[in-house]
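Record filed below.
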Amino acid sequence: MIKSGSPEEAPDSKPGTIRRRIIIIKRALQMKYVLLVFMAVLFTVTLVSLDLYYIMGKIYSEQLGNENLHAVILGSARLLAIHLPIYFAVVIVAAIFISHKFAGPIFRLEKVAEAMSKGDLTVKAVLRDGDELFDTAEHINLMIELLRQKLMKEKHLSDRIALRLEEISGKLENRSLSPESAAAQIQDILIEVRHIASDFKV
């Protein structure tokens, strides 16, 4: 059954896979895809039909004569008028289901990107078996994991720097550390600070 709206996803029998219950996920994208497929099929059918009628006209005019040719072409046109809507309906339904292979993954990747923009690095792009953009999802997952690891590394470094600054501050208050020694230690800390975010190009 074809539904539209927010996609509902249910876990499949295999772990890590999903099953979508809604076919029309991104209406604008899928309708554009369906329209392109429909226009391509319509153009092809029109060319083939015109060529076929031309060939049939030449053959039948030679064998049947011009009097019977009109009746044959008229009967063929009636049959074609009956069959064409059925063919186009099949094409439209097939295009909707095929476009779902693209729209579903795009929707999932958009949701992952939206979560990342809000600072959530625990998300993961999970696609359905047979979906397009599977390699893209894997690259995005790898990027999220590497980014998470680097940020965790920087967080540990910043926590360690904050702890050392607190120790230096406490020693200065207790006068157990001279200003010169404190300045030297702060210089060492500054060197570590410069390494924060050094893996990123901004």
